[in-house]
Structures are given as structure tokens and as C-alpha cells.
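Colleagues,

For the teaching module next term, I've prepared a clean inverse folding example: a structure given as C-alpha cells, and then the sequence designed for it. I'd like students to try predicting residues themselves before seeing the answer, so please don't circulate the second half yet.
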């Protein structure tokens, strides 16, 4: 079965950087889009970033645009989220996700389009 395993979370001061990784297994990684979502305590899950199956197109939430970069290495079946200039409001559990559909999906920002989810990794940004 499809498994997604995140790593790279931690505690960082405001202005710092972290790089999250999500290793996928169980199917041909390069055929599927990948997304990152986050959920802060007491808040709903929100879209952070996504990349299409080829790595050609990327999508970002307005709140992270210019600070975060999503990328993928199909040879390693891994998607990354480079997070720079972190802010306390970025504190959340970050989860990677992948859809059931091959290639691209109707909306990269809609979590209901993703069926496989990792367990999440905690990112805490102190002020």
C-alpha cells in the first residue's frame, strides 16, 4: 500500500529555516502530484504547497509564497518543502499528501482531492 513518511520538523526561531521531506512508497511516485498541508491547534487543515507529477508546476498558499519552496526528486520518491523566513504563525503539524488520480488533479489546493496522507511532522517557530 501507499505510504508517506515525513521528516525534518522541529523547533526553530523566527526567521530561521527548516527543510521537510516526505518519502513515498508503494507505487510509482513519478506519476502523481504531491501536496503539503498544515494544521495548527484549533484550526482547520490548510493548503501550503503542491507540485505536479512532473515537477514542472508548483502552487503555493499566499501566506507562504516567496518563503517556501516545494520540490520533488522522482529518483528518490521524495518531495521536499524548504521553509525560509519562518514565522510563529507557521507553527503547525505539516503533512504531505498524494491523490489517487494519475498525473494532475482538478484542484491542488483542495485536501479532498488527496487520499494518501503521512502522519505529519511538528514544526514549531518561536518568537
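(Answer key — instructors only)
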Amino acid at each position: 500500500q501507499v505510504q508517506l513518511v515525513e521528516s525534518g520538523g522541529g523547533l526553530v526561531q523566527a526567521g530561521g529555516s527548516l527543510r521537510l521531506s516526505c518519502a513515498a512508497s508503494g507505487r510509482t511516485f513519478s506519476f502523481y502530484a504531491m501536496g503539503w498541508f498544515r494544521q495548527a491547534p484549533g484550526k482547520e487543515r490548510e493548503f501550503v504547497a503542491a507540485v505536479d507529477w512532473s515537477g514542472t508546476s508548483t502552487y503555493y498558499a499566499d501566506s507562504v509564497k516567496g518563503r517556501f519552496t516545494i520540490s520533488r526528486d522522482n529518483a528518490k520518491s521524495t518531495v521536499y518543502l524548504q521553509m525560509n523566513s519562518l514565522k510563529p504563525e507557521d507553527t503547525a503539524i505539516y503533512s504531505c499528501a498524494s491523490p489517487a488520480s494519475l498525473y494532475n488533479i482538478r484542484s491542488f489546493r483542495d485536501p479532498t482531492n488527496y487520499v494518501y496522507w503521512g502522519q505529519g511532522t511538528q514544526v514549531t517557530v518561536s518568537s
